[in-house]
Amino acid sequence: MALTDTFVRQVKPTEKAIGDKYADGGGMYLLVKAPGKYWRMDYSFHGKRKTLALGVYPDVTLAKARQRRDRAREQLADGTDPAIAKREEKQARADAAANTFEAVAREWLAKTSNKRAAVTQAKVTSWLEKDVFPFIGRFAIASIKAKDILDKVARRMEARGIHESAHRTVQICSQVFRYAVATGVAERDVTSDLRGALVAIEKTNYAAITEPKQAGQLMRSIYAYAGHPCAVAGLKLSPLVFVRPGELRAAEWAEIDLDAAEWRIPAAKMKMKVEHLVPLSSQAVDILRAVHSFSGHGRYVFPSIRTGERCMSENTINAALRGMGYSKEVMTAHGFRAMARTIMDEVLGERADLIEHQLAHTVKDPNGRAYNRTAHLPARREMMQRWADYLDKLRVGADVIALNRSA
């Protein structure tokens, strides 16, 4: 006779140590012992008698136990051992839990950290923690669809008006998926299906002052700026070295040799992952010696105002420019690169290959091979000094005269 819910609820254990069995049919029975009530199913597989655990009452009700029994019988009919199938399903659930998007993404972050500058690593981690993990982080990465990325990540960011960040975040997700494919926990990069689905972004150049007279006024404004000493030093140094803003603010004293007037930026901090050498003009050395009295005891040349454990905020130079009256449509921290490139080329007639070297762009020799980091170093050192001297002339209001020199 089949069991009933009332019987299962009311039946009590006896004094038998092995417990009492109450059959329900199809090999399933309720095993009642002092510790509790257990659903079991006896069956034979390839002539061997076996027992399958179906759960514990009351967490598993009579109806639920019968569903598990019926499924086990279907597996037997298909030639599958239900006990083995149960172990495989349990392992699959464990694998899914271990291979959530967040778990795989954090593994990818750790494995590839040496390929990114510290500031980039922090930014990528921040994007994931703020805009991805809360929405798809707990999902098994193999179960995530392109629509999940679009609806739960990209569209949320687009709704906040941060279209460029949405594109960048989807690109990061793509890298996580490719890592998952390589490590065997996902079949494919589903973000490839989102091509054309995101709001298009217009590519714009960083605003920059490229006219000498305006550059002279900018230099006067910089030298009149009264902010934190480190911010002032960073602002004064920006036009002299024209590195990328992230490279400037992450500068470390260990990278700078003031006596040799050189700054060697490690490959890990560079966009192209190649060590970059910046010859320092006498003006740049003077600025760095002055700021050394404020930050020379620490790691960073331009430390955070709040803590010396981090470098200066990415907004510091731009905020200073805004405070001086230069809007983002007129001048940006990144714009010092364009200012140097344009004026050095069009006004001063400096060699284009030396300018490109100093901008850390790839420059190739006549045979198509990239020059190494020390290529034309003496000539670049002289060019950087001429540029610093020229900026001084602009600052004091001297006439704009291109330097006459032999090629």
Describe the protein's architecture and organization.
The protein has 407 residues and is α+β, with helices and mostly antiparallel strands. The protein folds into three domains: 5-96, 2-Layer Sandwich (Double Stranded RNA Binding Domain), CATH 3.30.160; 101-194, DNA polymerase, domain 1 (Orthogonal Bundle), CATH 1.10.150.130; 212-396, Intergrase catalytic core (hpI Integrase, Chain A, Orthogonal Bundle), CATH 1.10.443. The chain has helices spanning 5-10, 62-77, 82-98, 101-111, 118-131, 133-136, 146-159, 163-182, 212-224, 229-241, 245-249, 282-295, 316-323, 335-346, 352-358, 377-396, and strands at 20-25, 28-33, 36-45, 48-57, 256-257, 262-265, 276-279. The strands form two sheets. A four-stranded antiparallel beta sheet has the order 1-2-3-4, covered by helices on one side. β2 (28-33) and β3 (36-45) form a beta hairpin. α5 (118-131) crosses α8. The radius of gyration is 34 Å and the shape is elongated. The protein starts with a helix and ends in an 11-residue tail after the last helix. Residues 399-407 have low confidence and may be disordered.
Keywords:
407 residues, alpha+beta, Double Stranded RNA Binding Domain, DNA polymerase, domain 1, hpI Integrase, Chain A, 3 domains
